[in-house]
Amino acid sequence: MNEYLLQRLRADAAHLLSLAENEGKLKHPGVKGRFRELLIDNILSPWLPPDVHCGTGMILASNNERKEATQDDVVLYAKGICPPVLVSKNAPEGIFLYNSVLARIEVKSWLNNTELTKFLRATKEIASLKLAVRDGCTNQFTGTLNFLFAYKSDLTPGQDSELKRLISAMSKQSIDPLSGIVSMLCVPGRGFYKIGIEKGKRVWQKHLSDDPRDRIAWFVACLSNSCFEYLIQRQGRNSTNSLEVGVGLYLDRPFEAVNI
Question: Whole-angstrom Cα distance, residue 40 to residue 56?
Fold first, then answer.
């Protein structure tokens, strides 16, 4: 394990939590948007591929279907695949063509049943969008990843309670919990969970540390891995033959499967 990288991620995570706690004291409509900006500015951007950027706005598919992003959405898009239509040159808001959208994160200040249902409904909309593929293309492409990050939760702490609520809510929305449509759930004070592969099958895995900083660090590390992997795939290349990797491949993998 690269101890320097882990300590750097932990330091960034501690800074994020401190800033979020301070911002959360403000009673202002713009605070929710500020939580999103904190996540982007302080924790995500340094670990993404150079061509991948963070934004918020509308996702537009090839058949003119669209998904109107909420204020809580962070859209991770590859500018080299499809250029965004930004409000202005340096603004993060705009329209993002679906081919370029690698992942989407919803950031919640407080996670409750209502917010979780909103996230899953938006996720189903995203999953229904179609990529624009050239005639004769034989490559298989995967749709956009969906991640959920919440600073705090209204649940009473319990053994894997956040994941259990997510799985229950997915079932109510007719979403297969192992489909990969939802790939990660991070509530720093409660746990970090992700879809992984064990013995050739998809499983939900949990991070074994109880330290909120570690949970955020590994959320970022796994997201970094995913963005590098999906960018290579969207470019029609094989990541197995590439040295392009996310920061997570430089760290240990302290996860174990959760029986759902």
Answer: 11
DSSP letter for each residue of 46-88: GGS-TTEEEEEEEEE-TTS-EEE--TTEEEEEETTTS--EESS
Give residue 34's pLDDT. 78
Residue among 183, 182, 176 at smallest CA distance from 225:
183
* Averaged pLDDT for residues 129-155: 91
Evaluate whether 106 touches 149 at the Cβ level (below 8 Å): yes
Query: DSSP characters for 185-211?
Result: EEETTTEEEEEEEETTEEEEEEE----
The answer to whether residues 32 and 39 touch, using CB atoms and an 8 Å cutoff, is: no
Extents of the domains making up the chain = 3-129+142-258
**Where do we find the tokens 């490559």?**
139
Q: Is 153 helix (H, G, I), strand (E, B) or coil?
A: strand
Q: What is the pLDDT of residues 22-42, one digit of tens each?
A: 877 776 767 777 788 888 888
Q: Which helix (H) or strand (E) holds 104?
A: strand 101-111
Predicted local distance difference test score (pLDDT) of residue 57: 86
Taking the C-alpha atoms of residue 235 and residue 131, their distance in angstroms, rounded to an integer, is 13
CA dist., res. 77 & res. 54, Å (int): 7
At residue 125, does pLDDT exceed 70? yes
Conformational region of residue 146, where left means phi above 0, alpha means psi within -120 to 50, and beta covers everything else? beta
What secondary structure letter does DSSP report for 41? I
Global pTM value: 0.93
CA atoms within 13 A on the CB side of 194: 22
With CA atoms as reference, report the closest residue to 232 among 137, 98, 102. 102
Average of per-residue pLDDT across 206-225: 97
